[in-house]
Amino acid sequence: MHVISRKPFNEAIENFPHCAQAIADLLSVLEKRSFNTPLEMRENLTSLDNFKYRNKWWVIDIAGNHLRLIAYIDFRFQKLFVKHIVSHLEYERLNHFYRGHKE
Questions:
Q1: What digits encode the pLDDT tens for the residues 22-78?
Q2: What is the DSSP letter of 34?
Q3: What is the pTM of this model?
Q4: Are 94 and 84 in contact (CB under 8 A)?
């Protein structure tokens, strides 16, 4: 899968050094594998879930649910664009924001 930018991963490693290895591992899996459907991705990343307030946005837990990655994923073209890598608390805030600000 083509990860559009490594910058969000690098920033997350700086902001959450206790989760650095888990973040790096997730990036490695995303870059090395190709997933044609969400079901295929879920076989490797079992926490994958739909972000219900945006079309084609997905959520992946990192480091045992300490962090959440929110990304736009286009399975057809194998593109992944990270929108946010945040703590669980910040994820709840984003969830509330996007719930009130529909596309």
A1: 999 999 999 999 999 999 999 999 999 999 889 899 999 999 889 999 999 999 999
A2: -
A3: 0.92
A4: yes
Task: Give the residue carrying structure tokens 């050094």.
Answer: 17
How far apart (Å, rounded) are the C-alpha atoms in residues 41 and 59? 12
Domain ranges, ordered by start, for the chain: 2-100
Which long-range CB contacts under 8 A does 13-21 form with residues at least 24 apart?
Answer: 16/63, 16/66, 16/67, 16/85, 16/87, 18/63, 18/66, 19/62, 19/63, 19/66, 19/67
Report the top-level CATH class of 2-100: alpha beta
Sequence-distant (6+) residues with CB within 8 A of 24 are 9, 13
